[in-house]
Specification:
13 strands, elongated, binds S-adenosyl-L-homocysteine, Alpha/beta knot
Length: 249
């Protein structure tokens, strides 16, 4: 069995000894971890250690010496997904699966056709961040993707244009806009921004604004994908093309 993984705060990692407490201790108990068992610890910022359990009390598990590990699970490609907000809990799915795929950052975005306003979206951020953390732990990532504060479309556009490539899939894009034609031959990049519309899609005005600002419009094919499918597949396409999805560099 692979050593169970725990993501600890930097304060917790500075304690002597480092201990698993609270929910982590409960999780360790469920796994029936005992003295001598190996665990993996990470700080959520890209560093990872191996340690053995040195002592168990009802409240906490104390760990022995921490041995740093060379972390491999993070892609070099930084993918930020600007995801149009919709009603319901679809963003939870996107956060979870996007984390598994290797997304770096998710920015919930309120657009003209979003059914969720900024005020309603903001309180959900804590839950979304926790989902990212759990997904990172489960899939072996050492860096927890950031779920940023929700932005308006205009704010997202300004921010997203600072990446080397900014991509906006839109469902009316024709064959001339196909990903394969537009992007497959594009040389290696390190930062990518992806703009995905909500259920109702982008407004014409938003589309025009983005394309005029230099965002690359692409087609994802002849079928209309749901917003969450489009977000996740675009993350996958970017990481397949310029990242480590599919294995290797
Ligand atoms: N307005 C559409 C649905 C929008 S789908 C309608 O109701 O008919 C939500 C988002 O997914 C779109 O804004 C777009 O970014 C993306 N998307 C879905 N299918 C797509 C496709 N075939 N090609 C490119 N983008 C697509």
């Amino acid at each position: 069995m692979a050593a169970p993984r725990f993501i600890l705060s930097s304060e917790a990692l500075q304690q002597a000894p480092v201990c698993l407490t609270g929910a982590d201790a409960r999780h360790a108990r469920v796994l029936r971890l005992q003295s001598g068992d190996e665990v993996r610890l990470c700080d959520g910022q890209g560093r990872e250690w191996s340690a053995r359990i040195a002592g168990v009390t009802p409240q906490a598990l104390a760990l022995g010496e921490l041995t740093p590990l060379a972390a491999q699970p993070e892609p070099a490609l930084q993918v930020t997904l600007y995801q149009g907000l919709a009603r319901g809990d679809k963003l939870e799915l996107i956060v979870q699966k996007g984390t598994e795929l290797g997304m770096t950052r998710l920015v919930p975005m309120v657009t003209a056709h979003s059914q969720l306003r900024l005020e309603a979206a903001s309180p959900k951020r804590i839950r979304w961040q926790e989902i990212a953390r759990q997904a990172a732990r489960q899939c072996g990532r050492t860096r927890v993707p950031e779920v940023a504060a929700p932005l308006s479309f205009a704010q997202a556009l300004t921010e997203g244009l600072s990446a080397e490539v900014a991509i906006m899939p839109f469902e009316r894009a024709g064959a001339e806009h196909s990903w394969k034609r537009q992007l497959a031959s594009k040389a290696q990049v390190n930062t990518v921004s992806l703009f995905i519309g909500p259920e109702g899609g982008f407004s014409d005005q938003e589309m025009d604004l983005a394309l005029a600002a230099g965002v690359q419009g692409v087609s994802l094919g002849p079928r209309i994908l749901r917003s969450e499918t489009a977000g996740l597949i675009t993350v996958a396409l970017a990481l397949f093309q310029w990242g480590d999805l599919g294995g290797g560099a």
